[in-house]
Amino acid sequence: MNLLNIKFVTIIILLLLNISIPVAKHPLHVSTTEVNFNAKDKTLEVTCKIFTDDFEDILSKNYKQKTDLSKPALKSTMDNLVKKYLLSHLKITVDQKNATLNYIGFEIDHEVTNIYMEIENIKTVKKVDVDNRILYDLFDDQISINHVIKGADRKSGKLLYPDTKFSASF
C-alpha cells in the first residue's frame, strides 16, 4: 500500500468514527431559579436560568411549533411561549399564600436563557415555597438548583427529578 492510500484510508476511518459517535450537547440537565426579596420595592424578583437548547426543545415539544429564542423577528411569539411554559411549571407560595408571578421577559446570555418574573405587594417574607417543574417534562435526570434570598440571608437547595418542592424559612 502506498503512502497516499494509507492517508486516504486513515481519513475515511476517522470520518466514519466521528460520524458514528454521538456528541452530547452538554452532560448535565440543570436549571437554576433565584427568588430575591426586594424590601424597598416590596417584590420578589424571580430569575430562571435554563440552557437555551433544552428550553427551545421543550417549547417545541409542548407547543408543537418551531422555536428560536435568539431570532428578533420571533420575539413576541417566543415571549408568549416562554411565559406560558414558566407560569405552568413554576409555582411560588409566600407565607402559605399562592403568589402570582408576573412575567417580565427573557434574554439570551451565551448558552443560557435568563427569564425574569416578579411577585408584587410582598411587604415581608417569613417562608417561601417553590414548586419547580422546569424541564421535568423533557429529562428524567433534571437537576433544579433553587436559591431564595432575603437581605444577606441566602437559602439554597438542589432538587433531583422527580422532587419538585423547595422551602426556605427566615
Automatic annotation (TrEMBL):
InterPro entries: DUF6702. It holds the Pfam family DUF6702. This is Peptidase E. It comes from Pedobacter changchengzhani.
